[in-house]
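Sorry, any thoughts here?
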Amino acid sequence: MLDRGAKEFKFVDRTFNLSPSISHKILDFFLKKINLGLFLHFEMVPDRLPDGLKSLIEQFPKGSLQFEIGIQTWNPAVAALVSRKQDYQLISQNLKYLREHTAVHTRRSHCGFAWRNSE
């Protein structure tokens, strides 16, 4: 695809960062070609961002990397209803890290369940 001129890549599998070794290989591949003016979009699990990925993410220039982060809810009772386990403290730490130490654009979804209001 790169050889044919593709510049924008969207990975819409929410498990992008569940395997740090695979995530690292994908990011490393694109980082080596980032001078081609690429834009990369990934959906990610917000409480899974190991240090090895953080250091790699920091190397991407502004405007080249976007993470869509599905939190769905900050309410542990609602998360339990759908068996969604989330480490809220780690989510907050990772969001703060991305905001303060990287050029990543983040898109966050918080209200994903039909019976939940915006409170």
